[in-house]
Amino acid sequence: MPKKRFCRLIGVLSLLLGWIPSASALGPEQVLVLANKNARASVGLAREYMRLRGIPARNLLELWITDKETCSREEYERKVVPRVREYLKKQDPLWNIRCLVTVFGLPLKIAPPSLSREERREVKSLREKQKALRESLKALAAEEKKEKARLQKEIARLGGRILTLTKTDYRSSFDSELTLIRVQDYPLKGWIPNPLFLGFRKRKLSIPRDRVLMVSRLDGPSEDVVRRIVRDGLEAEKRGLSGTAYFDARWPRPDKAHAKKTGMGYGFYDLSIHLAAERVRKTGRLKVVVNDRPELFQAGDCPDAALYCGWYSLARYVDAFDWRPGAVGFHIASSECATMRGKNSQVWCKRMLEDGVAATLGPVGEPYVQAFPLPEAFFGLLVEGRATLAECYMLSLPFLSWQMVLVGDPLYRPFGSQGGGRGAR
Fold this sequence. Notes:
425 residues, alpha/beta, four-stranded parallel sheet, 39% helix, globular
């Protein structure tokens, strides 16, 4: 990673340590709940949650969309966007709504736009050409280096054209797209810098901060898991979350040189995990355990787990934890929120929810590590107690219209009894 870029990122960490926005914390009347009339239990769960949290009955919007985990871009644009915008225009003229909650039964993912017949034919032809070139590459002798390089370059060029046609980088999580529901027009390709992210506060971005909505999801492998998420959060708020915070880094706390050597993603985020542990430890609210070995925590290593952040075990949850009711944690790896329903899936979000966490987050596809919330910011804000779960997430999340999903009650404040109100506005 270029030295100047690394220094700017280290500067972001300094900013996170020294600055938090001053505004009132998210309240029940500022939450709009979205449920799917086409999915069993979705509307009932939404109403149950709203009653427990004191969210006004008018703040429920019932949609009709597929109950599958993936919807098409066309279905999202036709069945979701107009309905939500209409509600916000008519029922929320003063822009009081700051957060959307998607409830069990709504899609997790939005597929890329559909291809035309001509585009499908071209993609098929390009893939056939790639296949033929790969066969030719295999047949070349070891000394034919120039021809090998030429074929590899052509295969890569064809791959780039396929990527352009299939628009795979237009896909996103359902929730991440909803954050920009108030924005009339923005590029779907790739990601959009999040104006609420602490590290972008001094940047001039194309999307105004007041156009961005926070989004959180009440979801899980079953209806009972959703009810438990809400119940555990409410109980933890009453007594305060207690237990141990576990942070699973890959290396001993890196210095700048090490972080630079290991690259923007790995070095920077490993440092952020260490800094998150330090911030939690300074509060004195929880015992902190840091694993700085390459191996992950193993079965039985993490009793009374209240907080967790670590990496990397792709789609292979390691059941090292005895979760405290109200526990919050996330695992940094690709596609760990790709499904909530896959019966045999071992992705971390699904398995952590099954095992007892009240809140987690993860990507529905390949996000690239720099798209994850910064652990130092997320957990630092959470233990400070003045921001809700949704605010902690949005203040620490670099990009929108991308892959990330937050699962949990957006109003949850596990350490809120010791704080006033400062949030993401």
